[in-house]
Design brief:
Oligomer: single chain
Number of domains: 3
Low-confidence stretches: none
Strand content: under 5%
Helix content: 55-70%
Strand order of the largest sheet: 1-2
Structural class: mainly alpha
Length: about 230
């Protein structure tokens, strides 16, 4: 059932009582909310914005490798080795882990420098979103947004800048009305645990190495929810 049809079913009084709607970055849902809940504030939370930025980073990595090397990434490529660290937040990387990611990419030339530029843009975007936890006003948010867009423009990263600019009203609403980002993170952990449990149950003889890897991921910082 289309979202618009579902929103037209509940009584008008119930729909008017809804003041805020949090959803992922779907243009279909945004159009449905504007039509069916015109009085509600649309909010795109921290989790989905960073998720979109990570997708852009992974896409740039694959396309840059294909364009420069003329093939897909291999285990011997620095950008392939650093692919997981590139998706982690700076505060979740130790100095040693950060150096192992940063230095080889910096020395790699155009490929590494391109990826580090996008990674810096992603961290700048996270700085902008973090204003929701500090009670920042619109002037501070506007300045952080300007710094992010300027970096993207100077570095030639249009995709991420266009996405943020297109969804800025909903992102700004998140900064004003912090929503369910932490619950989204917890939901991700639940899904990950369920997948790992299913994978282990389907194996007749799970290797000790795989079991140890699954059960110690939280200690290694991969399951942070906030």
């Amino acid at each position: 059932m289309p979202p618009t049809s579902w929103l037209s079913t509940p009584p008008l009084a119930w729909r008017k009582s809804i003041r805020c709607v949090a959803f992922d970055m779907s243009a279909t849902y945004r159009a449905a909310i504007r039509t069916g809940l015109p009085g509600a504030v649309s909010v795109v939370d921290h989790f989905h914005v960073v998720q979109r930025a990570n997708k852009v980073l992974s896409t740039v990595r694959r396309r840059t490798t294909a364009g420069v090397r003329g093939r897909r990434g291999r285990a011997t490529d620095p950008e392939w080795t650093a692919r997981r660290r590139l998706l982690r937040n700076r505060e979740n990387l130790t100095d040693e882990q950060f150096a192992k990611m940063w230095n080889p990419l910096l020395n790699e030339g155009p490929i590494g420098q391109r990826l580090l530029t996008v990674w810096i843009a992603r961290e700048s975007l996270r700085t902008l979103l973090a204003l929701a936890r500090t009670g920042a006003d619109r002037e501070q948010a506007g300045h952080a947004r300007w710094k992010f867009l300027t970096w993207c423009a100077d570095s030639g990263i249009p995709a991420l800048a266009i996405t943020v600019d297109r969804w800025w009203p909903e992102i700004a609403a998140f900064i004003d009305n912090r929503t369910r980002a932490k619950s989204e993170g917890i939901n991700r952990v639940i899904k990950l645990v369920a997948r790992n449990a299913l994978r282990l149950s389907q194996r007749r003889q799970s290797t000790p190495t795989h079991t140890r890897c699954v059960t110690t991921r939280r200690a290694r910082g991969h399951l942070r929810t906030a």
